[in-house]
Design a protein that fits this description.
The protein is α+β, with helices and mostly antiparallel strands and about 350 residues long. It folds into two domains: about 10-85, Phosphorylase Kinase, domain 1, CATH 3.30.200.20; about 90-265, Transferase(Phosphotransferase), domain 1 (Orthogonal Bundle), CATH 1.10.510.10. The chain has helices at about 50-60, 90-100, 105-125, 140-145, 160-165, 180-190, 195-200, 205-220, 230-235, 240-250, 260-265, 280-290, 295-305; strands at about 5-10, 10-20, 25-30, 35-45, 70-75, 80-85, 90, 135-140, 155. A hairpin with a 6-residue loop joins strand 5 (about 70-75) and strand 6. The termini are far apart.
Length: about 350
């Protein structure tokens, strides 16, 4: 069994950060450069050394901001090991345990990065096969810079999915999650498996997209899909377009999104209808300033803009409708540093302090 201060290659084991039935993951420090941290995966059952070898071979060469990068690998050492970049933070399962569910904008931000990593992997002919919140790591920067900050969402455990496809119990949980017992591991993994994968048939990248649909639903509602419910049935804050995104991912193979890029594009809120955008906040304030004495509130109620799609009242200056999620302006103003959505009159981002320009649109 691995122990603290044990040397593995160039690194000294520091703290165990995750454990599964057949292996462990440790945080480790370089034996000379102590500020260089890595994560090291070590099988604790010799029977599962091949799983480690499979993962090391699978992720070799995958270099992407949303994929955990391999640094070193030796399946013949004693003990065998796989050295990977260390992600300070927690798994997406840990985030859900703390918050139950995310705001829909944060859920979309997480899924965008997951799908970006999958799109890169699929284009490199690599499938995940066992995608679930335990295998998605959230960098601690996400809790200060926002979930849309670049590179704060990382997909890991690419090489272990083949084992899950053949026998679910054979999957080694190397994520930063609690070992809850083999029975629950099997049930949890099956919830994210596409129907064609459960039946043992041939699969392609669309199996990973099915898992993404389940994860999206869980991020929006705090629960896994059941029956015919869509996310907005459980969470009224979810815009309707995300119900359609879920339907097209949690569907039969022939009706599912054909690629991660297609899924990614669908996460963009639909364009506004032909109605003009709402009045700028400054213009609204100027108009209400000249309203009759004591009648400003009534004036706002009678003249407040409405959403061109759902026809519900909105605030002047809103970029998205809070009711249906439709985009209300031709160009969305967004902080280039943290991805937040500042008001049109803001000169500085209230989340990260970044100086904003009038051209800060996406």
């Amino acid at each position: 069994m691995p122990t603290p201060n044990q040397r593995i290659s160039e690194y000294l084991l520091d703290t165990r950060v995750g454990a599964g039935t057949f292996g462990e993951v440790w945080r480790a420090r370089h034996h000379v450069w102590h500020d260089q941290l890595v994560a090291i995966k070590i099988p604790t059952d010799p029977q599962y050394v091949r799983n480690l070898q499979r993962e090391g071979i699978t992720i070799h060469g995958l270099v992407h901001p949303n994929v955990v990068r391999a640094i070193g690998f030796d399946p013949y050492a004693d003990p065998p090991y796989l050295v990977m970049e260390y992600i300070p933070g927690k798994s997406l399962r840990g985030v859900l345990s703390d918050r139950k569910r995310l705001a829909w904008t944060d859920a979309v931000a997480v899924m965008r990065q997951v799908l970006s990593g999958l799109m890169y992997a699929h284009n490199s002919n690599v499938l995940h096969r066992d995608l679930k919140p335990e295998n998605i790591l959230i960098h601690e920067r996400a809790f200060s810079d926002g979930f849309a900050a670049e590179g704060v969402v990382k997909v890991t455990d690419f090489g272990l999915g083949k084992v899950a496809n053949q026998a679910v119990v054979g999957s080694i949980l190397y994520s930063q999650s609690i070992d809850v017992g083999a029975g629950k591991e099997i049930a949890g993994t099956l919830d994210y498996m596409a129907p064609e994968q459960r039946s043992g048939g041939d699969i392609d990248g669309r199996a990973d997209l099915y898992a993404c649909g389940v994860i999206l639903y869980e991020l929006l509602t705090g629960e896994r899909p059941a029956g015919t419910d869509v996310p907005s049935d459980l969470n009224k804050d979810v815009p309707k377009f995300l119900d359609e995104v879920f339907r097209h991912s949690y569907a039969r193979l022939e009706k599912r999104y054909g690629s991660a890029g297609e899924f990614l594009a669908a996460l963009t809120p639909p364009p506004t209808a032909t109605a003009p955008p709402p009045l700028p906040r400054a213009a609204m304030n100027q108009q209400t300033a000249h309203a009759p004495m004591g009648g400003a509130a009534n004036y706002r109620q009678q003249h407040s803009p409405i959403c061109p799609q759902c026809r519900k009242p909105i605030e002047a200056g809103d970029q998205f409708c809070m009711h249906c999620g439709v985009q209300l302006v031709a160009s969305v103003r967004r902080c280039a540093k943290c991805g937040a959505y500042p008001d049109a009159s803001d000169r500085y981002c209230i989340f990260c302090g970044e100086t904003l320009s009038a051209e800060a649109v996406v």
